[in-house]
Amino acid sequence: MGWFSKDENKTIPPCPIEDILGEAKFYLDGRGANLYVYDKCIVIDRTQGGLFNLGNRTYKVIPIKYIIAMQIKSTGATTGFLEFSTYGHENTNMKGFDRVEDEDNINFASEESAIVARQILEFILNKIMN
User: What is the CATH number of domain 18-92+99-129?
Assistant: First the structure.
């Protein structure tokens, strides 16, 4: 499915709106963000740990029907990313390393994450095209 479970059991943090949406179809553990994919939307959870963030959640919900493009970069010399473009996306002119700050971007460093990102891209692409 899109869950990490190679040789070790990784704990998947719950989606901030799991009580509304239920269990996610896919989960991507990104750098500084988590991505949860559902049938009709994605949730980008940017909640960081730390003392000053206790009890705070920062997340964005994007309906799949509003995703107009996706870009994926695999890992290599730099981290990889999965980027979502939506109507009126103000950061589409970002280039290079500026994309790390894009709120519609999920950055990742492992090859396992790159595989899951590709599965997510395929799942969402099928939803958009059909």
Answer: 2.30.29
Domain ranges of the chain: 18-92+99-129
| 128 vs 12: CA distance, rounded Å | 27
**83 and 104 in contact (C-beta within 8 Å)?**
yes
Name the residue type at position 81.
F
Q: What is the pLDDT of residues 63-122, one digit of tens each?
A: 999 999 999 988 887 889 999 998 876 555 555 555 556 678 899 999 999 999 999 999
pTM as predicted: 0.80
| 108 Cβ neighbours under 8 A, 6+ residues apart | 28, 29, 30, 31, 75, 79, 80, 81, 82, 114, 117
Nearest Cα residue to 72 out of 112, 107, 111, 26: 107
Distances from the Cα of 74 to the Cαs of 79, 81, 104, 111, 129, in angstroms?
A: 7, 7, 17, 8, 23
